[in-house]
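Supplementary Text 2. Reproducibility record for the structural model of the 160-residue chain.

All settings were left at their defaults, and a single model was retained for analysis rather than an ensemble. We include the record here because the model underlies the residue-level annotations in Supplementary Table 4.
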Amino acid sequence: MRSRWFKPFLFFALIGLLFHAGTRPAQAHPADMYTQTYTLRLSATQATLDWTISPGPLLASSVWYEADSNGNEAIDDEEARAWVAPLLAAWESTFTSAAASAQPLTLNWEIPAVSWPTDLTAFELGDTVITATLSATFPEPLGAGQWVIANPYAEAISIN
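Retained model, structure tokens:
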């Protein structure tokens, strides 16, 4: 009886091993990824951050139409800010002073400006990008400490 089940079991086990040995983890392609860059400028009273978002060609049109809330195929300033605002709300952005008794200060970012591409085709080709200018005012001069700015937007498919 053992030999009756052993051969089919061995056959299926070998087939399973062959299929498993040929698999590789999926890798994202730059065409369906985001490139995000940050330029942070600090002064004694505020931080200004330029956040540049460049979706790959496969993502650009979906980003465009997600932002185009009125369906006119053009993104105005109000639509651009409305698209950036929920992404910014998910950020973790704190400053912890080097002083031993200091509590972390959560920064509240404002969106003074969003520069949105004017042409979908140029956006899809990567010739233009979205740039959000963000600012946060400090309640007092900060001094030495540690910044934490974490952006979870499309984290799994982003190059930062």
